[in-house]
Specification:
117 residues, 10 Kd Chaperonin, Protein Cpn10, Chain O, eight-stranded mixed beta sheet, 8 strands
Length: 117
Amino acid sequence: MSEVDWNAKDPDSISLTSAPEKMKPLGNQVVVKLDPLPEKSEGGLWLAADSRDHEHHTGTVVAVGPGKVAPKTGIRCPMELEPGDKVLLGRYVGANFEHEGNVYRIMPEEQIYCVVE
């Protein structure tokens, strides 16, 4: 069982001791490794940390759940995402956690905007 650091500095973020790639999300949950936000604009201007936090995030899917079970039929709906997919997601969806200096987010598949090819 992995241990959780509940004394993290950011109240919306926790730290795990086991690798996210070994996590098995439940239902329609997806674990995404977030890409770092750019420190400079395309024109070369330095961006303040708080302004970068309001951008949409991109990341790579590292784990997906088995899918949601339809309440009326009891049939499991397959997931559309697979590990390795590059995705675009909003800033305020899901829950963040850290592992070995990388930031990950766990969230429902429906809250991912699109796959970036």
